[in-house]
Task: structure prediction
Amino acid sequence: MELNQLQQLVVIADENALFRAAKKLHISQSALTRSIQRLEDELGMQLFDRSHNSMKLNEAGKLAVRHARIVLREADALVTGLDAFRRQIQALHVVTCSPAPLWKLTAELSKQFPDIHITSAMPDENEIVSQLLSEKASIAITRQEIHTDQIESIPFIDERTFMLIPVSDSLSHKTSIHFSDLNDKEIYEYTNTGFWHPLLRNHIQRAHYIEYDDIMVYLSVIITQKPMTFVSGLAQEFRADLDGWVRVPIVDEVATAHLRIAWLKKNKPMLSDILNWVSETSRKW
Result:
């Protein structure tokens, strides 16, 4: 028994004439007749009362048509469901509590899984769990060690905060600094850094901040002027060209964030390739 035979049976019932059904199905009347005869042989029962010039569904045929409609609807649901599942697998929405690890993750994911369409967002850190639970996010980068009935997480990467210090500044001779060393300093700051912005402000309250919320403007200014500014240890663009700056680590404990990858447990099967890759690859970063 094939789905196309059930489709043919339903079309014959709907058209109430063999020649009209054949025309609608774009096959010859004789081919349609042979296909229905094979279906009857498979079922072991005549579905039509036949006369010299006509074929009319009998009671068995009417029952077969009712079941055929159910089977065809379920077949459509199967295709639709699998298509939605495929789109879900190929679309990965990542939320994060900090931008630099997101930049790192999405850049590497795009290389490893080129068929996956990756989108991202940086909501308030307190909204990350709800984003996962509502399935607005596929995976999350978070500082929280989340293990609940619905969510689990694994270690991802450590993000350390450094200062880019002009060579003319007295701190440029240090191999490490504390937050307290930065009080009364003029610091240029990009503000859309997730949890880092309030954390740094809380620990360096007496600095003089010059703020930028546009990343392109901020980068243009600091590359031109070489002021004192924060930089993530994951930021690749400042590793090669430090002319005019010294890159100094901040050694206070909270200046290093221990980040994790979190996801909904029920979605783990469809995310397994990505999660296995993250677990193995992030150890090298």
